[in-house]
Design goal:
Immunoglobulin-like, single chain, 129 residues, alpha+beta, 1 helix
Length: 129
């Protein structure tokens, strides 16, 4: 079928707009793939622990905390311990997370018999996946 008389062969305005939008999307996808490919993802697990609120229930002190993995690699069997010193005696509490993925966080609770004044919370160990 021939185009009607008086119309010029070529692309319509809508086709040019569609081509432009398609090229922009394709460019963004290629840019994202290159960015991910060039980004370093081998940084080892690095943990930060932040103490939260403390609540008293019965004769125990419950201390909330958040652990964040600032690295890219996952840490498995991440052991967190907290300790206080009461009358020259060290009271400890600990918990273990099955895994803490890279660039993520988890929450936990440590339980003490005495008021956790001077509490130190730290990551003691973890395993490589």
């Amino acid at each position: 079928m021939n185009p009607p008389e008086g119309s010029e062969p070529g692309y319509s305005h809508a086709e040019w707009v569609s081509l432009g939008v398609s090229l922009v999307i394709l460019g963004l996808l290629v840019g994202l793939v290159v960015f991910v490919w060039l980004s370093p993802v081998d940084r080892p697990a690095r943990f930060e622990v932040t103490q939260g609120r403390t609540r008293v229930e019965g004769h125990s002190y419950y201390v909330d905390f958040t652990i964040e993995n600032k690295g890219d690699q996952t840490g498995e069997r991440v052991k967190v311990e907290g300790f206080i010193t009461v009358a020259g005696r060290r009271e400890e509490a600990s918990t273990t997370f099955d895994f803490v993925p890279g660039r993520s966080g988890e929450q936990g609770v440590l339980i003490f018999e005495h008021e956790p004044v001077g509490l130190v919370i730290r990551v003691v160990s973890y395993q490589l996946p």
